């Protein structure tokens, strides 16, 4: 094989590898998917499922959630409100909205986005816990 052809193949394979790695890194830096966890509401911890998606056009993360409020399923929506100012894209600020009103939710994701720890509130402060881990394929 001609040396120039070998060099072209190496450059092409390297480019494909780098593009694949870049795409993987971008995907790994995304909280998309369903998280199972708990949040504090009405004086006790309640089960919650939190779903995140990234809008392909704007890049903004939105979501939904459903939690158990003393036997009643309460559904709500999440909208990313911007950078929380800590200099890390692992901590995200959201606005939550459901039948009880709206407020702030600050979530800090693990580096691989497999889980998050958060605080929520209905005013300027967010104090009540809201946590989640990626749900396994067998959980509901």
Shape: globular
Structural class based on helices, strands and sheet pairing: alpha+beta
Distance between the termini: 56 Å
Biggest beta sheet attributes: 8 strands, antiparallel, barrel
Task: State the order of secondary-structure elements, H for helix, E for strand.
Answer: HEEEEEEEE
Question: Can you lay out the helices and strands and say which pair or pack?
Answer:
Blueprint: H1 3-28, E1 33-41, E2 44-54, E3 61-69, E4 72-83, E5 91-98, E6 101-109, E7 115-121, E8 128-134
Antiparallel strand pairs: 1-2, 1-8, 2-3, 3-4, 4-5, 5-6, 6-7, 7-8
Commentary on this structure:
Residues 6-27 have low confidence and may be disordered. The chain is 19% helix and 51% strand. The chain has one helix at 3-28; strands spanning 33-41, 44-54, 61-69, 72-83, 91-98, 101-109, 115-121, 128-134. Strand 6 (101-109) and strand 7 form a beta hairpin. The termini are far apart. It is globular. It has an 8-stranded antiparallel β-barrel. It is built from 1 helix and 8 strands. It is of the alpha+beta class. The relative contact order is 0.16.
Overview in brief:
The chain contains one helix and eight strands; from the N terminus they run αββββββββ.
């Amino acid at each position: 094989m001609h040396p120039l052809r070998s060099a072209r193949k190496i450059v092409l394979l390297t480019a494909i590898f780098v593009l694949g790695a870049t795409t993987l890194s971008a995907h790994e830096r995304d909280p998309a998917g369903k998280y199972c966890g708990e949040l504090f509401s009405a004086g006790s911890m309640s089960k919650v499922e939190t779903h995140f998606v990234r809008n392909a056009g704007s890049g903004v993360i939105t979501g939904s959630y459903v939690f158990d409020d003393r036997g009643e399923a309460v559904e709500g929506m999440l909208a990313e409100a911007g950078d929380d100012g800590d200099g890390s894209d692992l901590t995200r600020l959201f606005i939550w909205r459901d039948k009880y009103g709206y407020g702030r939710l600050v979530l800090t994701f693990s580096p691989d986005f497999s889980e998050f720890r958060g605080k929520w509130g209905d005013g300027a402060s967010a104090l009540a816990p809201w946590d989640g881990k990626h749900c396994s394929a067998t959980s509901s």
